[in-house]
Amino acid sequence: MTWTEPEIAWVAGLLEGEGSFMTHTKNTPDGYTYPAFRVSCNMTDEDVLVRLSTITGMGHLVGPTIPQNPLHSPFWRWGLYKKADILRLCLAILPYMGKRRSEKIRLMIDTIGTTRFWKHGTRWGYERGCRCDACRAAFAKHHRDRRAKRKQESVSRES
């Protein structure tokens, strides 16, 4: 989906005033820690968040959420959690954002850019700090295979 200039400007304006850009760490039950990202916007105006969701074509819209305090109004929440979608949106709105938000968005873009998209049970998982059995085994297998290949190459050169 491609966005028009006025659409991007509108999204940027809304997120500049009402949005939040978060980078935090999550932990899995097996002790693995990884970075997680979120762009969100909460407000009492459902129609505005429906428009945000429609323009971007991504994210999740939930609500109404009824606050515990009866004096507070029900609100809706739009959230974006996929790294690829966050990266695409952040790159599009960055030129329109103020100084403080731009710094936060640049940090988020840099962090996503250096975070390799990998899965458990791969050597990349181990190299990124995961020490679960599956990642450890994949890392060990990779190095066993490399040693065996080097040994085979040296034997074939000697022949």
Structure description:
By secondary structure, the protein is an alpha+beta fold. The protein is about 50% helix and about 20% strand. It is built from 6 helices and 4 strands. The chain has helices at about 5-20, 45-55, 85-95, 100-115, 125, 135-159, and strands at about 20-25, 35-45, 60-65, 75-80. β1 and β2 (about 35-45) form a beta hairpin. α3 (about 85-95) packs antiparallel against α4 (about 100-115). The chain is elongated, with a radius of gyration of 22 Å.
Instruction: State the helical fraction.
Output: 40-55%
Instruction: Specify the biggest β-sheet.
Output: 4 strands, antiparallel
- Which regions contain 5 or more consecutive residues with pLDDT less than 50? none
Distance between the termini: 58 Å
Question: Any chance you could write out the topology, listing elements then pairs?
Answer:
Blueprint: H1 5-18, E1 19-27, E2 33-43, H2 46-56, E3 60-65, E4 75-80, H3 83-93, H4 99-114, H5 123-127, H6 133-158
Antiparallel strand pairs: 1-2, 2-4, 3-4
List keywords for this structure.
single chain; 159 residues; alpha+beta; 4-stranded antiparallel beta sheet; 20% strand
Task: Describe, in short, the structure shown.
This protein is of the alpha+beta class and 159 residues long.
